[in-house]
Amino acid sequence: MFSRSPFHAAPVARRTAKRDDLIGELTQKDAYDLVLGAIDKGEYRPGDRLVEAELAERFGVSRTPIREAFQRLETQGILARDGRSLIVSSLDHDQVGELYVLRAELEALAVRLAAQHAAPEEIKVLFDMVEEDRPLVGDPHAMNIANKRFHRQLHLASHNRYLIQQLQLVLRSMALMSHTTLSYEGRGPATIDEHRAIVQGIADRDAAAADAALRQHISAAYETRLKQGAGRF
Prior knowledge:
By secondary structure, this protein is mostly helical. About 70% of the residues lie in helices and about 5% in strands. It has helices at about 10-40, 50-60, 65-75, 95-115, 120-135, 140-155, 160-175, 185-205, 205-230, and strands spanning about 50, 80, 85-90. It has a three-stranded antiparallel β-sheet with strand order 1-3-2. A hairpin with a 2-residue loop joins strand 2 (about 80) and strand 3 (about 85-90). Residues about 10-25 have low confidence and may be disordered.
């Protein structure tokens, strides 16, 4: 009977190890995305304690990728130490202001670039998103999700991968704000109109108009956030 050479086992072992490493990497990335997504959706709010074992059971993964996700999120400032525990970080008044300033500058650049580079199909998608979002103004949770989707599409229309990466970092930090400004009276309809003005500037290939509309939109959101913090609602 033919006997398989032991040398044939080495490539198989290497392929198996490589596959196992890839599965480990995917699991780690999935765990990171799941934890970050839960924070972004408001399932874990600033000050909430995160327990490794509980999240591992919830997401159906081992504790190792959850632990690695925690380490990554702590490095990024999304999680913070509270004694021996990890909690969702909180933003103080100055940090909130700094994020809005940075977001306004980066998104203004994004819409100026979109006015130059967005394809007609991309502009149509943006207009369609605005109209599809109108019926959601009475549902702050749905409107919040739609708002994030719209801004993500704006970023993509800039066709600048490095700018998109920086905007992702800013929006990740903004997820630490405990409440959406879209839950306050009048903010939902105003947001729809502001979104349309931004897209119209892009469609007209008027970078200055798109820039001005975007800055007005972010300023209005920031003003609402400040009123929220001052308890004026």
